[in-house]
Design goal:
Elements (H helix, E strand, L loop, with lengths): L2 H10 L6 H10 L5 E2 L1 H10 L6 H13 L4 E6 L2 E5 L6 E5 L4 E5 L24 E4 L5
Parallel strand pairs: 4-6
Antiparallel strand pairs: 1-3, 2-3, 4-5
Bound molecules: zinc ion (ZN).
Amino acid sequence: MLRKDILQKLKQHGVMPTSQRVEVAAILLARPQHLSADQIMDKLKGRGSRVSKANVYNTLKIFSEQGIVKELSLDSSRKFYDSTTHSHHHFYHVDSGQLSDIPESQVSISSLPPLPKGTEQESVEVLIRVRDKGR
Ligand SMILES: [Zn+2]
């Protein structure tokens, strides 16, 4: 993603484009991917960036609140940030900790329960946990 596109995207979502936020966005929005805060930190360090961990966490929180990325919590200790924000499905490989997308067309759900009273459906997202065979 070009720098001008990143600036435009942050503005569109009401996020002030500070240099640290632009650095984080440049990594996360480079392609469709799922990264943890630690993976983003490593990539920033690899680029010689001085963005602090606190700043990265804060930026990711703002990005997910403003819909620039989607936060995926797999358990209490594992969070990933997904650069694809529309509703979609995932495989989660529990051994490697890798997440990958499942195309919308490959999942069909034939029956869903009635929604709780006073609610409307926002999205249906499937997470399929997989592990190496024969463990
Ligand atoms: Zn995804």
